[in-house]
Specification:
Elements lengths: L1 H29 L8 H9 L4 H13 L5
Length: 69
C-alpha cells in the first residue's frame, strides 16, 4: 500500500519535471534569433566544396525562416 503511494508520488514528480523541461525548451526556442552565416562558417562551407552563391542562398533561406509558428 505504502509502496504504491510512493510510486505515485515519484511518477507525479517525474511528470512535473518533464512538463517544466518542455516549457523551458519551448520558451528558449521562441527566443531563437536569425543570424547570417559567420566568416568562419563560410570558410568551413567553402572548404567543404560549396560555392559562394550556395552560401548566399543559405543566408537568404535563414532570413525567410519564421520561428513564431
Amino acid at each position: 500500500m505504502i509502496s504504491s503511494i510512493v510510486g505515485a508520488v515519484i511518477m507525479s514528480a517525474a511528470t512535473v519535471a518533464m512538463l517544466v523541461a518542455l516549457n523551458i525548451t519551448s520558451e528558449a526556442l521562441k527566443k531563437v534569433g536569425k543570424h547570417p552565416i559567420t566568416e568562419q562558417e563560410k570558410e568551413i562551407l567553402i572548404n567543404a566544396g560549396f560555392k559562394s552563391r550556395d552560401i548566399d542562398k543559405v543566408n537568404q533561406d535563414i532570413e525567410i525562416l519564421n520561428f513564431d509558428e
